[in-house]
Design brief:
A 6-stranded antiparallel beta sheet has the order 4-5-1-2-3-6, with no helix packed on it. It has strands at about 10-15, 35-45, 65, 75, 80-85, 90-95. It has one domain (about 10-15, about 30-95): GroES chaperonin (10 Kd Chaperonin, Protein Cpn10, Chain O). A hairpin with a 2-residue loop joins strand 4 (about 75) and strand 5 (about 80-85). It starts with 8 loop residues before the first strand and ends with a strand. It has about 100 residues and is an all-beta fold. It is elongated and about 55 Å long.
Length: about 100
């Protein structure tokens, strides 16, 4: 199953933080926070402008991005949790 985002939406695979601290302690699931970084899996064609043209997307497949903790909608694809969010919900691109 392939998912193709519409308009200015982006499909992101969240990147989980390490479950182990720098000192070697393992963190329980209950203490983990929701990820705020991810890798772009698919990008929509861009938002349609008033003149009928499409706005160019500022991210592309493979980019690592930062987004708000509660941004977007969770979807499960082939047993893996992904996030669909709008381009405006992105906070930045990680180099």
């Amino acid at each position: 199953m392939a998912v193709k985002p519409l308009d200015d939406r982006i499909l992101v695979k969240p990147i989980e933080k390490e479950a182990k601290t720098a000192s070697g302690l393992y963190l329980p699931e209950s203490s983990k926070e929701k990820p705020i970084q991810g890798e772009v899996v698919a990008v929509g064609p861009g938002k349609r402008l008033d003149n009928g043209q499409r706005a160019k997307m500022s991210v592309k497949k493979g980019d690592r991005v930062v987004y708000g903790r509660y941004a977007g909608s969770d979807v499960e694809i082939k047993g893996t949790t992904h996030l669909i969010l709008r381009e405006t919900e992105l906070l930045g691109i990680i180099d």
